[in-house]
Amino acid sequence: MIASSFTELIGNTPLVKFKLPGFPEVNFYVKMESYNPTGSIKDRACIYNINSAIRKGHLTKNKIILDASSGNMACALSYFGKILGFKVKVVCNSKLTEDKKNFIRFFGAELEMIGDMTIEGNNWCRNLSESPEGIDKFCFMDQLHNPANPLASYETLGPEIHNALPNIKAVIGSMGSGGSMCGVARYFKERKNDTMIFTSQSASGTKIPGTGSFVDGDYVTPFITELRANYSDTFMINQSQAEVRTKELREQGIYAGFQAGGVLEASYNSIEKYKLKGDVVMIIGDAGWKNMDKLKAII
């Protein structure tokens, strides 16, 4: 493949067969979203949000892209904003890893740190973009409420999985903002309704980057609300479970953060509880290199 732009490298990420001990009747695959240009599933929603804003006339070259993020969307915006010629300002919370912080700054985005939850930064961005001094200066992407966010996975990620595995039995992923899994669940509900959708979320007192802790009050986006109506089950994952499963991923060469470990734990739970057989896919949200300051705990 010869690409004319890094935007063409978003999506079509590989599926890798993973040996799942104890479940010989399951063909288990990992969807490597870490192979997107910035190492994250959020690249899909990022480019959809940007292109939607351009089509609608909301984003022009004289405006600064603005959004709130726990980390991966901020990285994607800083990267694609740079290569598309836009200035970018991102607002992140205390969950932001040092590796993501450095990535954002390397690609020239302005970084503001606000609060402990993305919704705090989201509200700050909305107020800034609607203020007299900000209304003509910023284009607020609003990933937590932007319908282009789940549309990206509905039109790309869901079909990629289905086309590769027409008889797919289940898909498992984590819930952060909910956009990606909402789009996947929407796709399978319409196209292959017997495919089960499972999700992971952080247990109470646990803060896994990229995985919401809704039991502790994390903001419930419209995408989470839709997803709850479409998934088959969800599993609460604690830090120790995520760490054990991240080590297990490492043993088979998969370099990912604790978010992925949490999804693997949810995959075991799903397969065991629902006696799954056949083709099952877990989605990895981001790459290990973006989480090394956290992963040092298991070295």
Structure description:
- The chain is 41% helix and 17% strand.
- By secondary structure, the protein is an alpha/beta fold.
- The chain has two domains: 187 residues, Rossmann fold (3-Layer(aba) Sandwich), CATH 3.40.50.1100; 99 residues, 3-Layer(aba) Sandwich (Rossmann fold).
- The strands form two sheets. Strands 1-2-10-7-8-9 form a six-stranded mixed β-sheet.
- Helix 2 packs parallel to helix 3.
- The model has no long low-confidence stretch (mean pLDDT 96).
Task: Compose a concise summary of this entry.
Helices cover 41% and strands 17% of the residues. The protein has helices at 42-55, 72-84, 98-106, 118-130, 148-164, 179-191, 222-230, 239-251, 258-274, 292-295, and strands spanning 15-17, 26-32, 64-69, 88-92, 110-113, 138-140, 170-174, 196-202, 233-237, 278-284.
Provide the fold topology:
Elements (H helix, E strand, L loop, with lengths): L14 E3 L8 E7 L9 H14 L8 E6 L2 H13 L3 E5 L5 H9 L3 E4 L4 H13 L7 E3 L7 H17 L5 E5 L4 H13 L4 E7 L19 H9 L2 E5 L1 H13 L6 H17 L3 E7 L7 H4 L4
Parallel strand pairs: 2-10, 3-4, 3-6, 4-5, 7-8, 7-10, 8-9
Antiparallel strand pairs: 1-2
**What name does the CATH topology of the largest domain carry?**
Rossmann fold
What is the overall pLDDT average? 96
Rg value:
18 Å
Shape label: globular
Poorly predicted runs of 5 or more residues: none
| Arrangement of strands in the largest sheet | 1-2-10-7-8-9
Largest sheet: 6 strands, mixed
